[in-house]
Amino acid sequence: MKPLRSIAIFGAVGALVAAVALPAYAATKPAEAATTVQQLAAVDAQSLVVASEATAAPLSRGTFTATTPQEIEKSKAEAAAAARAAAAAKSASTASSSRFNTAGYALVSPGSGEVRYPVPQGSYTVSRTVGGGHNGADMLAPAGTPIYAAAAGVVRASAESIGGYGVCIMIDSVVGGQRVQTTYGHMIYGSRQVQAGQTVSAGQLIGYVGSTGRSTANHLHFEVWLNGGLVEPIAWLGANAG
Fold first, then answer.
1. Angle ∠(167,173,179) on CA atoms, nearest 5
2. Can you spell out the DSSP letters for 90-109?
3. Which of 242, 224, 225, 241 is nearest to 233 (CA)?
4. How remote is the C-alpha of 62 from its chain's centroid?
């Protein structure tokens, strides 16, 4: 009888423990949060980009790309300016070829000596020579008259603008064992036929008479420097050209 009574007591105690523990466990389990219809709808909703957050797509108009009206207008103006510049360059190129007065003139200066006249004889008049701060001879000639290298040598400088000389070429030569530098100023824009570093021969065509830089009339400003010293160009030509 005692064993049976012990089993009954243990069973009653176990039932009591279960009755107390199970409600307590249930009370500690977190309850799932209630989900509303609005929340479910928000999960599936599509996003909306408002105007203030939108990024404008680039607009393409032929040769330019812009994103704002101001940029579009600026690009249009730049494209128009580039087109005008290209047209002007083409027009200037065509016009410049007609400005060169090559009719009746040889493309190589006449003569066979070490020194040649820089413009054809009989085509110019001397309006000014060395003196009073003027370092060369001004040889007046029609625009487009050919200009020749006075002596063989190497081109020291060749540019569309060299100070008051305007379009100018400078050549280093050796004549009769002496160092000679000749300068040719005021040529027509775009008429230079040689570049710096190039070797030229006596009488070679190098450009055309113009009135660029500090000039008021078409002429060749011609300088001659002998062993670093300035000499009167016309007298030097008379003594050496042939």
1. 120
2. HHHHHHHHHH---TT--SB-
3. 224
4. 22
CB atoms within 10 A of CB 186: 26
Q: Which CA distances in Å does 84 have to 88, 99, 113, 115?
A: 6, 22, 48, 44
The C-alpha angle with vertex 156 and arms to 151 and 162, in degrees rounded to 5, equals 110
* Calpha distance 66→233 (Å, rounded): 60
pLDDT over 90 at 199, yes or no:
yes
Average pLDDT over residues 150-166: 97
Cα-based distances in Å from 152 to 197, 199, 234: 13, 8, 18
Radius of gyration of the chain (CA): 47
> Could you report the per-residue pLDDT of 94-138, keeping only the tens digit for each?
444 456 766 677 778 888 889 999 999 999 999 999 988 899 999
Buried b (16+ CB within 10 A) or exposed e, 190-208: bbbbbeeeeebebbbbbbb
Q: What is the pLDDT of residue 77?
A: 81
Q: Is the pTM of this model over 0.70?
A: no
**pLDDT band for position 6 (50/70/90)?**
low
Measured between alpha carbons, how far is 237 from 242 in angstroms, rounded to an integer? Answer: 9
Q: How far is CA 8 from CA 3, 17, 19, 20, 72, in A?
A: 9, 14, 17, 19, 97
